Amino acid sequence: MGTADAVPGVSGGTIALIAGVYERLIGAITAITPQRFLTGVRSLIPVGEGFSIDRARRLLMTVDAGFLIALGTGVATAVVLVTRAVHFANANAPVVLYGVFFGLIAASAVVLLRSLPPESGREIAMGLVGVVIAAVLSGRSTPLSGDGLLVVFVAGAVSVSAMILPGVSGSLLLVILGQYERMVETLKSVMDGLASAVLDGASLPFDQIVVASVFILGGLTGLATISRVIQWALLRARRATLFFLIGLVVGALRAPIAELLGREAVSVSTTSVTAFLGSALVGAIVVLVLDHTAVDLDLAEV
């Protein structure tokens, strides 16, 4: 999920959906309420009711903390490690990079539709709505103007909340909002600054740390909001909601192509088309192998 979320055009939510952990993820996020958070903090502070490891442990089990910690650690590690590689490939081999993304998305759509065939016109209609929304969001738009902290907060809220929606790429929305390069450079500066501070005793890049912190705060706000909306929809119309989410995946097939066609340095030729299709095949094989060997997905019974 972290690798996907670091890449414009690919959604971490898609990975969660094909891996069969999507609804557990939504449930775990929505289980974290302000009241439970404050209860957890109080249980670790020796005031009031006093310090209580047992109470903190019970609370962590209630919110599925083990799952969230394992998943969050994997996502954060991948984002930190993959961002540099993706940034390099994005600048030097965009056709191959986005070809792989196209294959990942296309194969994901096939896997999801195979696991949950439509049974009614309503489900098909919801899927089509998802296709249209994702296709529209995959286009190009006017970037957010300015570079203040409010812009960073809004960009974080929009992009991070989108990261748990299958087919809607949070990184692509950052590109559309004109904030992707800035946030990649901010993350790079923070990591380099922390490393220099530890190894060489250099001063911390406080300005960049503030920007990253505001982005994360906006992201957590958006994540808490959209996850509750999704949970509400799943509880009331589960199959229709799943078809809407699958539709988002299908509609996102436009994203890699739109991104490439919007670049002056990329031209349509036999060589570029062949490279795109070949790398798309590689991406599709990765998903199909994952589905065959590691995932036993049955959305109808999850």
From TrEMBL:
Pfam families: VCA0040-like. InterPro entries: VCA0040-like (IPR007163). Keywords: Membrane, Transmembrane, Transmembrane helix. The chain crosses the membrane at residues 65-89, 95-113, 125-143, 149-177, 212-230, 242-261, 273-290. PANTHER family: INTEGRAL MEMBRANE PROTEIN, POLYPRENYL-PHOSPHATE TRANSPORTER. This is DUF368 domain-containing protein.
